[in-house]
Structures are given as C-alpha cells and as structure tokens.
Amino acid sequence: MDSCILALLAPPELRDNLTDWLLAFHEALTFTSQQIDHYGAHPGTMSAGEQVTGSQRKLLVRVRTPREAAEEILAGLRVDFPQAGLEYWITPLEGMGRIG
Hints:
Helix content: 25-40%
InterPro entries: DUF3240, N-reg_PII/ATP_PRibTrfase_C
Shape: globular
Protein name: DUF3240 family protein
Pfam families: DUF3240
Oligomer: single chain
Distance between the termini: 25 Å
Number of helices: 3
CATH architecture: 2-Layer Sandwich
Strand content: 35-45%
C-alpha cells in the first residue's frame, strides 16, 4: 500500500476544529501541526501588516496516510470546511522508520 504525506495549509484560527476533525476521522491517524509564516500569498488576501512583512501566519498540518485515505480525507474536508480556504498538496512517502 502506497503511503503519502498530505499537507494542509489553513488559517491558524482553524487549529482546534481541524485537529478535532482529523482525530475524529480515524483514531489511528498520524499527523503533526505547526504555525508557520507563509510567503508568496496573493497580496489581495493579505492584511496591511501582512503586506509589510510579505507573509501570513498559517497552520501547516502534515498527515501520514495511505494514498487512498488522503482522497477520503480531502473529500470530507470539502464537505465540512467548504469556505475555509484550505490549500493542500500530496507527496509520496519514500521511506520511514525509527532510529534508536
């Protein structure tokens, strides 16, 4: 089964709702989240302060999942967060393990 990383870029105020949604999606789902500075956003979507710094604060969530489940997650997010402005990308997971 091919695994992947589903990366989600979200407004930071969605942190709790998105985290709760992912935990409810499947209790064994593995993901991380962090606050980041997102550069390259369209100026029309940025506040005056963000235009000065050239970045927006965003929540980056990375979900490790089978490729088929990534599509199921995206389908659910489209239904439950239709106006959230979520961005996503999927990359293949070539390897993983534990050291020590």
